[in-house]
Amino acid sequence: MKKILSILFLILILVGCSNDATQESSVKDLTNSTLPPTVQFEIVDTVYSTEQGSFCWRNSNSANCLSLPSPIEIVEDKNPIKVSNQEKMKLLVQRQPSHQTLTITSADTHQSEELEINKNNQFKAPDIEGIYILSYYAIWEKDDSGTSGDSSFIFKIEVK
Predict the structure, then answer these.
(1) Phi and psi of 15, rounded to 5°?
(2) Where are the domains of the chain?
(3) What does the DSSP 8-state code read for residue 22?
């Protein structure tokens, strides 16, 4: 009797583990299908990646929301991109949002202000030397593919 119970217990464990693997795979597939558009930035013909911030992205079947630490915490271990004061930079957005803001925060003073983004998605670095964290936040309305949502993207610059 003990032998039969042991075998049944072992079968239940194996079936349970294989079930979890299938569910985990489905979650990964769902996550990949519900990610926001990518955002990069360009400085003098060089393209840089941003760090993904918090987001909530939806398609017709599901939603994927992720809450992450503050922008300062997200990039604290990242090296800043060196720029000149008032240097022009451009956001490269995979899909144009219906609303967007760009906030710049001094790493030293933690003071923040909103930067102006022109119609070509360009903006300028600050006048004052220092390290700055830039947080780009965008909202996308539903498009032909049925996806919509909001997301933030973070990057760090050093004005020299």
Answers:
(1) -65, -40
(2) 1-33, 35-159
(3) H
Check: CB of residue 40 under 8 Å from CB of residue 50.
Answer: yes
E strands in the chain: 39-43, 46-49, 51-58, 63-66, 81-83, 88-93, 99-106, 112-115, 122-124, 130-140, 148-159
Alpha-helical regions (H) of 34-135: 71-75
Distance CA 73, CA 65 (A): 19
The answer to whether domain 35-159 has CATH 2.40.50 is no
Tokens representing residue 127 in the block: 């006048």
Which one-letter DSSP state was computed for residue 141? -
Distant-in-sequence, close-in-space partners of 20: CB < 8 Å, separation ≥ 6: none
Tokens of 47: 């393209």
What is 51-72 written as a DSSP string? Answer: EEEEEEEE-SS-EEEE----HH
Q: Which pLDDT tens digit goes with each residue over 12-46?
A: 344 444 344 433 333 344 444 579 999 999 999 99
pLDDT tens-digit map of 53-107: 999 999 988 999 999 999 999 999 999 999 999 999 999 999 999 999 999 999 9
